[in-house]
Known about the structure:
Layout: E1 8-12, H1 19-28, E2 34-35, E3 39-40, E4 55-56, H2 59-67, E5 71-77, E6 80-85, H3 86-94, E7 99-102, H4 105-114, E8 119-124, H5 128-138, H6 143-157, E9 165-168, H7 172-189, H8 192-203
Parallel strand pairs: 1-7, 1-8, 2-7, 3-4, 8-9
Antiparallel strand pairs: 3-6, 5-6
Helix pairs in contact: 1-7, 5-6
Bound molecules: guanosine-5'-diphosphate (GDP) and adenosine-5'-diphosphate.
Residues 15, 19-20, 38, 42, 73, 75, 77, 82-84, 102-104, 107 line the site of guanosine-5'-diphosphate (GDP).
GO molecular function: GMP kinase activity
Catalytic activity: GMP + ATP = GDP + ADP
Function: Essential for recycling GMP and indirectly, cGMP.
Amino acid sequence: MIEQKGILFILSGPSGVGKGTVRKALFEQSTDLRYSISMTTRAPREGEVDGVDYFFKSRDEFEKLITEGQLIEHAEYVGNYYGTPRHYVEETLNQGKDVFLEIEVQGALKVRENFPEGVFVFLIPPSLEELKDRIVSRGTETEEKVKNRLLAAKEEIDMMDAYDYVVVNDQINNAVQKVQSIVASEHCKRERVAHQYKKALEEK
Ligand SMILES: Nc1nc2c(ncn2[C@@H]2O[C@H](COP(=O)(O)OP(=O)(O)O)[C@@H](O)[C@H]2O)c(=O)[nH]1
Ligand SMILES: Nc1ncnc2c1ncn2[C@@H]1O[C@H](COP(=O)(O)OP(=O)(O)O)[C@@H](O)[C@H]1O
């Protein structure tokens, strides 16, 4: 048996850029990636299922998870906590399977501290005007909140340099294809297959 850890992929970017949309489209196609379902204190939206979209927690439960060190990272975002479960991510990577996180920017920067070998992908909008249109058309924010999110987005876009890859979300399918290319290219980079051949030859 060849022991090889899986790769941790992190998709991040400003609010409203389309992270959720791209992630869902990616997972609708066949992929070997394992999606890490986050914990949150936000209330479920219509149609959302506990354990599928998120693990929905009370604030007390969430704070307990933080103190127990059960989260790799957590962030407070628009009044709610969001966090990545440690056990699932570490266990899955140790089984040699790739894990995919879709999280906001503060959390992604924290993941980088613990998983420097992770692959960080930053999703950007084709333009700030387009980002504004997407946030407005989603219809989940008041005018004031749209303004705040755009201000935050400008600061977040400045953090682009901290990432390994930048993907422009012009068309969903283009963005999904680019993410898939990144996954493929990272596999080649780490020479998983080459490594396996080498090992197999050594064992002969
Ligand atoms: N830091 C962090 N952010 C997360 C996590 N899970 C989801 N998010 C981000 O939290 C933000 C809010 O998500 P959500 O409430 O589902 O609303 P959305 O804005 O419609 O995607 C999005 O930017 C998600 O990418 C997590 O585990 N940690
Ligand atoms: N490539 C795209 N072209 C047009 N609209 C998009 C695209 N990607 C996402 N959207 C729309 O933009 C809005 C924000 O997307 P969402 O996935 O909720 O963003 P995020 O998860 O980054 O906050 C949604 O209404 C979504 O349908």
